[in-house]
Amino acid sequence: MTTTEENKLTLLLTRAKNLRYNDTNDLDDIVQKTKLHLNRYFPDKPVYAKEISDVKFTPNYSFGDSDDSLYRSAWDRGRQKLVNLIDTRIEEYNLIIAEKQKTNNQPTPEKQVDKDRLSEKEYQFLVHLFDRDETRVIHDFLVHCDVYLAEGLDHNHNHCYKLGLIVHPEIYKKHLDNLENIKDAIEERLAEYSGRYIDDTKVYPNLNKFQILKNSYAPINTPWEDINQDQGHLLELLRSAKETIDYQNIGNASRTLLQKFANHVFDPKKHTTDAKNAEGKPIDLGEDKFKNRLHTYIRCELGGHTNKELRDFALNLISTAESSADLANKLTHDLKAGSMLAESCVISTMTAISIVKLIDK
Known about the structure:
elongated, 3 strands, GMP Synthetase, Chain A, domain 3, mainly alpha
């Protein structure tokens, strides 16, 4: 409602207050124009206009010898109810406008501009203040944040600042259940050392850093919680990867995951082999040799002629997983190739886990 529009209802309110007894022409004009404006200002609330129409200015009953006071009392009650209804709608609309103005002052990802960004020195100092063991979670959250302070007005029209925290989408997801505590701590600390009056704080994920995968992947559920968590971490790396180093990290994470997985399923007492390497020496089955351990595991668990085809298939999957992890580690700066190889690495790693899980049953 603009000032001019608000004045129209205010004028009708004044006319209702000054409505003379039994002036039905003026009453009809006030009622019709009030309904017109209410339908315009509150299009989704037609009941407001109906409330105006339902106001009664005559008594519910009368007797033939009733004096004029009965009608005057009914008129006064109707006039007061009309005044109250119009006054309430003006107040309601003012609250709606105030809330919209408050929302418009909020820092959102689309509204952030460089001039509102916290200076690098102040940002680093804020991060430094949380660099303690007891506030490590907030510190790690902040290092993935862009921090903005936009000047604005609070609901009392006092000068204030609106704090905006734009965070990496994976960090946002990780701390989703704790966002209120994190933002309150950051707001309090920033206000404390800077002397700024911060009226509100909003946290948003930086969707520019969210990568939509062409395919959907889900972790393979295993009996080992660390393996399940590491698969989730691997998928997070793939979803957020943009640079060569990100894709190389996927290769490293895949190799680490396969090594931990091999150590879970491989039993040195049960899974043994007489096979030799190319130099004629016994195959190294140490904890860091996940390929050798998984190959030995598969040969022992799928021994015999009847399992040959399945055994060969499983062995090839393990070899492919190792090769893709090695290749991801050696990526060049070709980001298109990096994305493809990193995703292939994730697929082969999780496929290897899946086939071994089936064997382990």
